[in-house]
Amino acid sequence: MNSSDKFSSIFAPYIRSYIKEKELQDLKIERYRSFLLDFDRFLSKTAKNDLLINSEDIKRWADTRINDKKTTLYARFCIISNFCRYMGSLGHECYVPLHPRRSFESTITTVFTHSQIHNIFDACDNMVTKTRCPKSMLFVIPALIRTLYSTGIRIGEALTIMNKDIDFKRNVLVINDTKNNRCRIAPINESLEKVLKQYIKYRDKLPICDIDHPDSYLFVSTLGKSCSHIPVYKYFVSILEKCEIYGSFGTNNPSLHSIRHTTAVHSLVKLTGAGKDLYCSLPLLSVFLGHKSVIGTESYVRLTQEMYPEVLKLDMHTTDQIFADLNLKLQKNYEKEDN
């Protein structure tokens, strides 16, 4: 059953119409459904019988979200605030909660060294299955991991690539299902081209109908089905263990998304090492990664400074102050919009 049919509070028809409106705006509505379903359950438990959401309701709901990360709680407040505004536009005045203050502090993430990346590739190539599994995705892993590193795309974006999205004539991948809902292209370099062509050659030998059809997925299991995130994550954990790569003290544990961070840092090092100006490189890297703005990319400057100070040759205090001033300005703008 679709989650949109599980709404049960007095606000259920309004939530459905609100979600439908967002869907017509061509927005990804999975998070809207998930967050509003949780809010609807809360409203059902409070047995509200009038179309009014007051500040006390919001406070009681927020008190139940003790396990949410700050970023998740911020996202929930954004959606619920917008829903309350929607109710107001229909003539049902509701309290519009202010968003919690958004933190612009950079999280410390894992970035693999070039040596570790080579070890990861070797581990991918030498993985073997210990059991017979008719829907194994093991043969996908070497090409998939190299695609993530070479292009910097997210794992969710990679797993939704269709055969028609790969263009060897122009050497690009067309990424349609993106986090920011914006179609973009990712370049295919010479080494990745060889890997993908080899992968496709062996994949097409699977006795599966239409496996090479333009509308079929590029990365598939041995049954020809699209790959799931969870098995890929499990394979990658095994690869990290085999390479003896663990999160260092004070950093997040390495994950598949760490490959994207690594690509960003290595790309910035390559650009600056080739004589490109840092502040000219940032917009290029921002477009390459599919960020909405260069603000989402600037954190990689600090990571690069910490790992390759001899390459950037920048004064840490000076650049930190530049970005501190910029983040302060952005934070004030967010607070002004919220008020």
CATH homology group of the largest domain = Intergrase catalytic core
Q: With helices defined by DSSP (H or I, 4 residues minimum), what is the helix count?
A: 14
What's the alpha carbon Rg, rounded to whole Å? 23 Å
How far do the termini sit from each other? 39 Å
H/E order of the elements?
HHHHHHHEEEHHHHHHH
CATH T-level topology of the largest domain: hpI Integrase, Chain A
Instruction: Please provide the count of β strands.
Output: 3
Classify the beta-strand content into a percent band.
under 5%
Mean pLDDT score, rounded? 82
Q: What is the number of independent domains?
A: 3
> What percent of the residues sit in helical stretches (DSSP H or I)?
40-55%
Based on helices, strands and strand pairing, what is the structural class?
Answer: mainly alpha
CATH class bucket of the largest domain: Mainly Alpha
Question: Uncertain spans, ≥5 residues at pLDDT below 50?
Answer: 314-339
Name of the CATH architecture of the largest domain: Orthogonal Bundle
Major sheet characteristics: 3 strands, antiparallel
Overall outline: globular
How is the largest sheet built, in terms of strand order?
1-2-3
Walkthrough of the structure:
The chain has 339 residues and is mainly alpha-helical. It has 3 domains: 87 residues; 129 residues, Orthogonal Bundle (hpI Integrase, Chain A), CATH 1.10.443.10; 82 residues, no CATH class. A 3-stranded antiparallel β-sheet has the order 1-2-3, with no helix packed on it. Helix 6 crosses helix 10 and helix 10 packs antiparallel against helix 11. The chain is globular. 26% of the residues are buried. The C terminus is likely disordered.
